[in-house]
Each structure stands twice: as structure tokens, then as C-alpha cells.
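Marked as duplicate of an earlier ticket. Keeping the data here for the record.
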Amino acid sequence: MNDGASAFATALALIVSGDPEFLGIVGLSLGVTLTAVLISCVVGMPLGALLAVARFPGRGALVVAFNALMGLPPVVVGLLVYLALSRSGPLGALGLLYTPAAMVIAQTILVTPIVAALTRQAVADLNAEYDEYLRALGADRVETIGTLLWDARFSLATAALAGFGRASAEVGAVMIVGGNIAHVTRVMTTTIALETSRGELALALGLGIVLLAISLGVNAAVMGVRTQAERVGHA
């Protein structure tokens, strides 16, 4: 009990004092996660909207595939990215393995299907409601997608936050492709796993508290976005 209390006190001291190593790990985690989520939104939102609006052969299979890919096993993604970026892989010449860029790639692959699938559902619901109206206005496909994406902005914010929550908690894929190298690719989740296995609980607890705070913040933001959406919808 005393060891646990001591570790918890040390963890709080790390957070309050702004320990450089501690802040470096948190900063790298947020940088990698935010970059992956941004890329996922840039790719996934237009793709999801296109799947909601367009009609073409194979569309149904793509919708099923994206829904299924929402549950991609992180370690499998990590393994595939590792094989692609290793020296013998097709992208080995880029030298990205065991770098933050490799971690961004892995997280982007995990998050993009989530963003795309949630966007498709949100835009499809709106398209069913506004399709005839937009056709009457003579809107082409690009204009339709743009209009629906704007109208679904609150739902899209929720999709982005869901992607952020998935990426920020990821450990398997980023450990495989990042290598958990100190001061290079060591992020919050991999550090917690490493320090816990070593029995060094103070740093693990401190990072766990920050990760939990981030998770709570994301959930609060989702609730806030939904509340705002309901207010706008009733206005």
C-alpha cells in the first residue's frame, strides 16, 4: 500500500513539475495521434461522403468492408506496416521504420475506416432527407457532398473525436513499427506497458492519469458536440 501511495505521489509530482522527459512523451503521443487523425479526416470524410451519395458497382461491398475495418486488430496493422517499411519491404528505401512517421502511418490505417464509416452513415441519413431538395436546386455531386458534409459537421466532429480516442489508446501497432525507442518513438501507451513490466510504477501512473484525462476530455467533447447539434437542430 505504501509503495502504491508513494508511486502515486511521485506520479503527481511528475505531472505538476513538468518533468522534461514526461512532457516529451506526452507531446510525442499527442503529435503522432493528432497527425494521424488529421490525415484520416482529410481522407476518410470525403470518402465516406462519396460512399453515401454515389451509386456505382461494388459500393455495397466497400461499405461492408469499411464497417468491418473499424475493428481492425492493431497488431495485424502493425505487422503489415512493419513488413511494408522493413528493409526488404516495398517502402524500405524510405527509412521510415522505427520513426514517428511509421507510427502515424499505422494509426492512420486504424482510424481512417472509423472516420469513413461514421461519416458515411451521417451523410447517408442527411442525403435521404435532402436528396430531392438538392436535386431541385440543380446541385451536382461535388456540391451535394460539400453541402451534406457541412450540414453533418457536428456528427463529423464526433467521428473525428472517436478516431482520436482510438488512436490515443493504441499500443500494439505503434510498438511494432515504432520500436518504443527512448526519446524517439516512446509514447504514452508504450511507456506505460514498459514501465509497468519493469515495476517502475510512478512514470506509468503519471502517464496513465494524463491518458485517462484525455479520454475523459474526448468523451466530454463528444457529449458537448451532440448537445450543440441538438440545439441547432431544434433552433
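See parent ticket for discussion. The mean pLDDT is 87.
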